[in-house]
Amino acid sequence: MQERAVSDDDPSPGEYAGRSPAGIRAGRGPQSEPLGGPWRPGARPGGDHPSPGEHADQSARRGIAHALQALQAIVARELFKFSRQTGRLVSALVRPLLWLAVFAAGFRNVFGVAIVEPYDTYIPYDVYIVPGLVGMVLLFNGMQSSLAMVYDREMGLMRLLLTAPLPRPWLLFSKLCATALLSVLQALAFVIVAALIGTELPLLSLAGLHALLALIGSALMLGALGLLLSVTIRQLENFAGTMNFVIFPMYFLSTALYPLWKLQESGAEWVYQLARFNPFTHAVEWVRFALYGKDPGAAPYVVLGCLLLFFALACWGYDPQRGFGGLTKRGGGGA
User: Fold this and answer.
1) Can you give the pTM of this predicted structure?
2) What b/e sequence results for 118-131 when a residue is b if at least 16 CB atoms lie within 10 Å of its CB, and e otherwise?
3) Is 268 among the domain residues?
4) Does 12 map to a domain?
5) b/e map 41-79, b = 16+ CB within 10 Å
């Protein structure tokens, strides 16, 4: 048998001590690396597997990312659907512009508003009703969202949405954010058109930021009301009743068209009291006072309180175990 030449890289006979024959035949060195790689100072025994606390943090981050992705998808869907419905934007602008251009113009010199807060001087009627018409845009779009919810429920889309692996209140909150965003965009479009046709509004001021905040809060409150109504509206045909018994009373029994002191001065005490406790009144007054940089008083608190109440009731109503009348029994959003 021919002997192999000994090289400098071969281990010495002493290095073979303590090694098994299998290890020598496999050609492993005298100090083989442990499973998981070489040991490093500060490394955990058993490799780089995360600890239970780190695993929980990673799961929480993934859950937050999933929730934000769902919010983005729902909002993008509503924006895309709205972009394909040009008639919806036109109708949202025509309705308040008709009031502004015809109704307000006809009563400009009849219903002028005296010097009362938040105004520092006598103003024409068209200037007074602009915040109310902005509220009209928010109100009608909030009710339009409830109609869309009923339609999605009848088509089965609401079932797919509410059975997603996310908390149901978060899914409803995502729908609410999409509705509020559309409402604010339509309201801003109306304000721009109203300014272009000659209505004097203090838009270019710091108070405009407070007015934008008031728009967002009011849009969320009215959108939450739309969510709540969508629980009780079983069919699309019932939406006309909602128009007659919810939208019009909320709008006309408010300060959108006339100030509260005129209602009290005219002797209509019951109308005055109903308007005082109308959430829509506080939404309009918040926008009006914020637009002129004045203190809106308790209006923001009433709007935000109603927002929380309406949204909590809507979440409870969309719970198939505890909600209003069992949504799952009428093809709704139950799992």
Assistant:
1) 0.75
2) beeeebbbbbbbbb
3) yes
4) no
5) eeeeeeeeeeeeeeeeeeeeeeeeeebeebbeebbeebe
Digit-by-digit pLDDT tens for the chain (335 residues) are: 455 555 555 555 554 444 545 444 444 444 544 444 554 554 555 555 566 666 566 667 777 887 888 888 888 988 888 888 777 788 888 888 888 888 776 666 555 556 677 777 777 888 888 999 999 999 998 888 888 777 777 776 666 676 777 888 888 899 899 999 999 999 999 999 888 888 888 776 777 788 899 999 999 999 999 888 888 877 777 777 777 788 888 999 998 888 887 777 777 788 888 989 999 999 999 999 998 888 898 999 999 999 999 999 998 888 777 655 444 444 444 43
* Within a domain: 46: no
150 lies in some domain: yes
Domain count, the chain: 1
Q: DSSP string of 194-219?
A: HHHTT-----SSTHHHHHHHHHHHHH
**Three-state DSSP state, 318:** coil
Token pair recorded at residue 258: 């006339």
